């Protein structure tokens, strides 16, 4: 594992890259978008591509020996294998559909994995001007102030976030409705914001008590957020209750007080 001084330097460069990409997103957010489709449902804009190029170029200038995985470049060609080498995992614009529709839940997500362990995380929403950061063992922060997960210990009083998943894991409308209805009987309310990374950060800062999603795009959706959740005192795990696997396209997060009841609720709703 890298020394703390090195991790802090990695974070500083990642924050700079996220803010530079955020400026591009902020400008594009209020302009006409040029949209393409990835498959039947997923969208990609020229802003996604421009931001990923900007982020990778900035990171490569500082860390030329590191590896890189990005949603719009390496992943588009099926190159997503994670090795023990320091690897930057980037979603240049998480919430592209939100971006296209002018819904302000969009962000840059940058994570650094070392020996396959997410170690540095940056999630930046340039529209709401919120910067979430975390370093393994050094805490989590929102705009420089420490954050922590909620202390809610009753499932019925909890706020849950989820997403419908991608076409790869799309439930039928009936089964999705049944699952949501089942969960709604167990929690206070449910939200779908359209950004996996921001949902994780919502758990980290206590806005959300619970989050789960299956069938999301890939490790770039979670690489930054999982560090921030853990450093805020939260737990990240597979919705089945098994250990979290960054390559599995399955994630759940909660405060420590709710995990067991949450897993039971998810199993009962399946």
Automatic annotation (TrEMBL):
<dbReference type="GO" id="GO:0008934">
    <property type="term" value="F:inositol monophosphate 1-phosphatase activity"/>
</dbReference>
<feature type="binding site">
    <location>
        <position position="221"/>
    </location>
    <ligand>
        <name>Mg(2+) 1</name>
    </ligand>
</feature>
<feature type="binding site">
    <location>
        <position position="94"/>
    </location>
    <ligand>
        <name>Mg(2+) 1</name>
    </ligand>
</feature>
<keyword id="KW-0452">Lithium</keyword>
<dbReference type="InterPro" id="IPR020552">
    <property type="entry name" value="Inositol_monoPase_Li-sen"/>
</dbReference>
<dbReference type="GO" id="GO:0046872">
    <property type="term" value="F:metal ion binding"/>
</dbReference>
<keyword id="KW-0479">Metal-binding</keyword>
<comment type="pathway">
    <text>Polyol metabolism; myo-inositol biosynthesis; myo-inositol from D-glucose 6-phosphate: step 2/2.</text>
</comment>
<dbReference type="InterPro" id="IPR020550">
    <property type="entry name" value="Inositol_monophosphatase_CS"/>
</dbReference>
<dbReference type="GO" id="GO:0007165">
    <property type="term" value="P:signal transduction"/>
</dbReference>
<dbReference type="GO" id="GO:0046854">
    <property type="term" value="P:phosphatidylinositol phosphate biosynthetic process"/>
</dbReference>
<keyword id="KW-0378">Hydrolase</keyword>
<dbReference type="InterPro" id="IPR033942">
    <property type="entry name" value="IMPase"/>
</dbReference>
<dbReference type="Pfam" id="PF00459">
    <property type="entry name" value="Inositol_P"/>
</dbReference>
<keyword id="KW-0460">Magnesium</keyword>
<dbReference type="InterPro" id="IPR000760">
    <property type="entry name" value="Inositol_monophosphatase-like"/>
</dbReference>
<dbReference type="GO" id="GO:0006021">
    <property type="term" value="P:inositol biosynthetic process"/>
</dbReference>
<dbReference type="InterPro" id="IPR020583">
    <property type="entry name" value="Inositol_monoP_metal-BS"/>
</dbReference>
<feature type="binding site">
    <location>
        <position position="71"/>
    </location>
    <ligand>
        <name>Mg(2+) 1</name>
    </ligand>
</feature>
<comment type="similarity">
    <text>Belongs to the inositol monophosphatase superfamily.</text>
</comment>
<feature type="binding site">
    <location>
        <position position="93"/>
    </location>
    <ligand>
        <name>Mg(2+) 2</name>
    </ligand>
</feature>
<feature type="binding site">
    <location>
        <position position="91"/>
    </location>
    <ligand>
        <name>Mg(2+) 1</name>
    </ligand>
</feature>
<protein>
    <recommendedName>
        <fullName>Inositol-1-monophosphatase</fullName>
        <ecNumber>3.1.3.25</ecNumber>
    </recommendedName>
</protein>
């Amino acid at each position: 594992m890298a020394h703390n001084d090195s991790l802090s330097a990695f974070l500083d460069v990642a924050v700079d890259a996220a803010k530079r990409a955020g400026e591009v997103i902020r400008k594009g957010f209020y302009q006409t978008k040029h949209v393409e489709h990835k498959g039947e449902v997923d969208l990609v804009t020229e802003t996604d591509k421009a931001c990923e190029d900007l982020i990778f170029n900035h990171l490569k200038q500082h860390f030329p020996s590191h590896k890189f995985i990005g949603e719009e470049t390496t992943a588009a060609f099926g190159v997503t294998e994670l090795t023990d080498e320091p690897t930057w995992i980037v979603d240049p614009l998480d919430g592209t559909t939100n971006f296209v529709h002018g819904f302000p839940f969009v962000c840059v997500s940058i994570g650094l994995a070392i020996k396959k362990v997410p170690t540095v995380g940056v999630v930046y929403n340039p529209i709401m001007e919120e910067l979430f950061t975390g370093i393994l063992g050094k805490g989590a922060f929102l705009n420089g102030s420490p954050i922590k997960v909620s202390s809610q210990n009753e499932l019925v009083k909890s706020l849950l976030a989820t997403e419908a998943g991608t076409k790869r894991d799309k439930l039928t409308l009936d089964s999705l409705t049944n699952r949501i209805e089942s969960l709604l009987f167990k929690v206070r309310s449910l939200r779908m914001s359209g950004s996996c990374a921001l949902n994780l950060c919502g758990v980290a800062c206590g806005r959300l008590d619970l989050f789960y999603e299956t069938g999301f795009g890939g490790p770039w959706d979670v690489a930054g957020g999982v560090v921030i959740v853990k450093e805020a005192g939260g737990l990240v795990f597979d919705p089945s209750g098994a250990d979290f696997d960054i390559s599995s396209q399955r994630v759940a997060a909660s405060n420590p007080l709710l995990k067991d009841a949450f897993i039971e609720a998810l199993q009962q709703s399946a």
